[in-house]
């Protein structure tokens, strides 16, 4: 019994690590994520504002025009 | 903010607007940029150069400051690198870059403007940026645990003196709500209908917007009452949130009523 308890205690860090890994790898419904992103693109702030969503394209445009990049970090998934 | 026409017009002319959208779509390029730039939450903003290097990750949410920062960021990055390398830089350009970025204290900026020989439009622009800084610093002095009634009174007096001296903030700049509130207080104490008229409509609009926002939350939390009826903890949290929303609405309605009473007293 005593050694079982010790073995169980020794497993705690592993279990904790596994649980953290699981939460970090939380899966998201990909159809919903794609729909959310598509919906965002219909919002007035986005479609009327000439926003670029490709970072390489934004950098290339900044190089071409000499303008700085105004980067707005947002998300379309729920926490 | 981003839905407003003036932001969109400014954005098209002065910057490359990049929406770094985190989507959780597997394999999507650019989906981890939040981490790359070490931001911890949403929404966040940064001004980047053409290589993607962040020139600043502190971007205020008013167009006046945003446009100053975007205009000043390239010069600020170049000049601060030159200073770090031990090189001499043009002091007027450095001052304007620091002002644009909001990286200088108002008193220091005032002294530097006085000794810089700036004139004409550049001086007027610098003076305006200093005034915005000054008002933002005053707003900061009225926040926090250790702020006393005397601190608030001193801030109110300073705002009112600036108003009487004819100083006005650029519309929509970040200290505007604070200055407006101070002017309403000053108008009340000094029976000043001019100061009242200057600030009243914006303050009223702000309270009305707050009421609208809060009322917008109500259906969701009322639905949560039913949803959480079997979970005591969640139910308590929902009730407490609803109570807080009701208090905010009531407070904003009271402030509008107070404004209307004051308007009558001042014949404004």
Description of the structure:
The complex is a heterodimer of chains A (79) and B (268). Chain A is mainly α and 79 residues long. Helix content of chain A is 62%, strand content 9%. Chain A has helices at residues 2-24, 30-40, 44-47, 55-65, and one strand spanning 69-75. Chain A is elongated. The two termini of chain A are 42 Å apart. By secondary structure, chain B is mostly helical. The model of chain B has no long low-confidence stretch (mean pLDDT 92). Chain A binds chain B through residues 28, 30, 33-34, 36-37, 40, 44-46, 48-55, 58-59, 61-63, 65-77, and chain B through 2-3, 7-8, 11-12, 14-26, 29-30, 33-34, 37, 39, 42-52, 55, 59, 66, 70, 73-74. Strand 1 of chain A pairs antiparallel with strand 2 (44-48) of chain B.
Runs of chain A with pLDDT <50, length 5+?
Answer: 1-5, 14-23
Mean pLDDT across every amino acid position of chain B = 92
Largest sheet of chain A: none
Order of helices and strands of chain A: HHHHE
Largest inter-chain contact set: A-B, 36 and 42 residues
Separation of the first and last Cα atoms of chain B: 30 Å
Question: What proportion of the residues of chain A is helical, as a percent range?
Answer: 55-70%
Strand content bin of chain A: 5-15%
Please tell me what the overall shape of chain A is.
Answer: elongated
Number of strands of chain B: 3
**Strand composition percent of chain B:** 5-15%
What gyration radius of chain A follows from the Cα positions, in whole Å? 23 Å
Largest sheet: spatial strand order of chain B: 2-3
Secondary structural class of chain A: mainly alpha
Shape of chain B: flat
Distance between the termini of chain A: 42 Å
What count of domains describes the coordinates of chain A?
1
H-E order of chain B: HEHEEHHHHHHHH
Q: What is the residue-mean pLDDT of chain A, rounded to a whole number?
A: 76
Structural class of chain B: mainly alpha
Q: How would a crystallographer describe the biggest sheet of chain B?
A: 2 strands, antiparallel
